[in-house]
Design a protein that fits this description.
It is built from eleven helices and no strands. With about 230 residues, the protein is an all-alpha fold. Among the domains are: about 60 residues, no CATH class; about 80 residues, no CATH class. Helix 6 crosses helix 8.
Length: about 230
Amino acid sequence: MAQPLMPHATASWLVDNTALSFEQIAEFCGLHILEVQAIADDTAATKYTGRDPVRAHEITMEEIHKGEANPDYRLVMVKGPDPVRRTKGPRYTPVSKRQDKPDGIAWILRHHPEVSDGAIGKLIGTTRNTIQAIRERTHWNISNIQPKDPVTLGLCSQRELDALVARTAKKAGIEAPTDSRLAGDREALIEELRRERETQQRLAEEALHSEAAAINDVATILDPFSDNKGHV
C-alpha cells in the first residue's frame, strides 16, 4: 500500500486536525499504533511539524470525512504519478568502486574477448571509449591497471556475468564454458553431510534406547502397604 512521503509528519497533522482514530492514522501512514499514540501524547523522541496531506495531494478531505464518520473505514491514498524508472544508459556504480572499473574491464577483455564493447559497457557501467583504450593499451592509467574479476570487485554479480557470457556464446555459436573446478568438492561435501546426518540419526536412536532401558531399570518404589512383590 502506498504511504505518504513524510509519514510521521503526516500522522502529526492528522492527529491535530482530524477526528480519525489512531488505528486509521497508523494504517494510512504505515506506522505502528504506538508511534501514533506517542505523537498524540507528545512523548515521541522527535518533535514533528505537521504536514498537510490534503495540500500535498495525498488524500482528499472527502476521504478524511468518510474515515471520521466510520472508525472501521480504511483511508485510501490518492494515486500519485508513477515514478520515473531509468531503463537506458550505463548502470550506476558507487563512487567508491568507480576506480575499480578499468581492472574489471581488463579482466573481461582477457578472459572473455568474445563479449562486445556494448555488453561490457552495460555490465560494468562504462563507455566504449574507455573499453577501447584499455584494449589498445592507450588508457592514461594503463600501467596501473591489473585485471581483476568484476564480481570480486563488486561491479556486477556472478549471475549477471555468467548470463552475459552464455548469451554471447550462444550468439557466436560456441559452447559456453562450464566451471567444473568445484565438482569434486561438491560431491565430497554432499557425502560428508550424508554421513553426518546418518551419524546423528544413529546417536539419537541409541540415546532413545538407552533412555528406555534406564526407565525399565528404575528401582521399584517401595510401598509400605505391600510386600514389594505386587501383593497388598
